[in-house]
Amino acid sequence: MIPGGGYAGVAINHEGHDVAKRLNDLGYSAYVLLYRIPKEETMSNKKFGPLQDAQYAIAQIREENPKKQVVVIGFSAGGHLAGSLSNLFEHPQTPYLENANLRPDYSVLCYPVLTMEQGVTHQGSKQNLIGPQFKAEDVELFSLEKQVDETNQPTFLMSAKDDKAVPIENSYRYQKALNSYNIPNTLFTYEEGGHGFGLINKTDSRDWFAVMMEWLQTVKK
Hints:
Helix content is 35%, strand content 10%. α2 (49-64) crosses α3 (77-87). The chain contains seven helices and four strands, in the order ααβαβααβαβα. The chain is globular and about 45 Å long. It has helices spanning 13-25, 49-64, 77-87, 123-130, 136-141, 169-180, 208-219, and strands at 71-75, 106-110, 155-160, 185-190. Strands 1-2-3-4 form a four-stranded parallel beta sheet, with helices on both faces. By secondary structure, the protein is an alpha/beta fold.
């Protein structure tokens, strides 16, 4: 689980521990990533600090759970980090990681920030990760719909159509990219709910988590 927080904080309870507990109750091992916030003062390159943490986490999880499959679940800006882990796994951030399998087997991206394109991205996440001066190559690299290729994993997307913070267009663009490579995927949508509701959308009785678990069983290798 990779909680959101706009790359300014980590919403570790309702987008982390609560989800992990539900998975634990179903008999799954679950891990919550408390990742570092991008900061020039403490990182040689703040754009890659959170990804480094995510890559170390998946490397450790795989080491401790050999032959097990790994699902990454990310929310909001944590969805961007989960998407970065899912797309940039061939770019290990330290020499230690060069021989590790950094690719998640499945991705679950919940009301995710997936593009850095102006007018669609979440401006706060963009500012905190790659700002304040936006280089074209950074916008390109971290617009994850542009990084999708035939190596991507099956992906479950979830978003509300009335999300004002992170427009559902993020998920639409990513799904279009997945479809262009015939990557198995689905997009679960709510008509209402806004942003940041975690497991429970109070405007709709449908349970995206249960749908997600069922979907994973259908695509599981």
